[in-house]
Amino acid sequence: MYVGEYRDGFRHGRGVYVFKNGARYNGEWRRGRKYGQGTFWYPDGTRYKGEWKRDARHGFGAYYYTNNDIYEGLWKKDLRHGMGTYLYADTGTKYMGTWMEDCMEGPGQLIHARHRFHGLWKHNLPYGRGCFTFENVCMQHGHYIHVRGPADGDPAWIHADEDIVEVQSPHVNSIIVFFESDKEKLAKGDFSPRMGILPIWRARCITPYNPELLPPEAMPLREEVIIFPQFRVSSIIRSNMRHPSPLN
């Protein structure tokens, strides 16, 4: 059921649409599609409030989960993509950084009550070099390695007597730790490093707090090439042909 504005037979302007499955959208429409600012209540109890483009979450918006977690940031074609913040309601921990295609990816910070981690993320996991800061008093420098853990996530495997082997992973661009018994499977190429991977911190040193030693901060993603409408590629090529560069 739709209650709102129309134009040329399309839902256009502001309006409310109630779906048969109980979902509801209240916001702006353009030629029959959700476009602009609006709020969508999903059947599972989650809610999105923000920008839309062609029926997809696109632009800046906030998503409220049933466990009270909140994501607030940029979206692209229904996926978290760009700068964004994710709040874990049960612990109060907050991730601030970049996202790519719904995954934490690139520079970011994981903020706890009395300390925070600055570093890089890959496939939702911290990896590589980074540092922990403790109330702007001191810093612990080191790096994360990725370790294959059991499917149930029980970290008891860390105390196993079996030898482990460190290799460079082409899949996650980081160091992966395998058990010695996995070497044969790894050589055959039938071992998936993304299955049951856990990040393990390897501390290197502790120094007084110095902001100049922090890793790079998250930056907006640069994905689109700016095209100036007053210039045409063909005219630029012809101009270069008439006036060749002296370096050629």
TrEMBL record:
Looking at the UniProt entry, the stretches that span the membrane are none
Gene Ontology CC terms: motile cilium; nucleus
- Tell me the Pfam families matching this sequence: MORN (PF02493)
> Does the record bear Repeat in its keywords?
yes
> Cross-referenced SUPFAM superfamilies, in alphabetical order?
Histone H3 K4-specific methyltransferase SET7/9 N-terminal domain
From the UniProt record, list the coiled-coil ranges.
none
Repeat keyword on record: yes
Q: Which UniProt keywords apply?
A: Repeat
GO terms under biological process = axoneme assembly; spermatid development
Q: What is the name listed in the Swiss-Prot or TrEMBL entry for this protein?
A: Radial spoke head 1-like protein
Per the UniProt record, the source organism is Ooceraea biroi
> Highest lineage ranks of the organism?
Eukaryota, Metazoa, Ecdysozoa, Arthropoda, Hexapoda
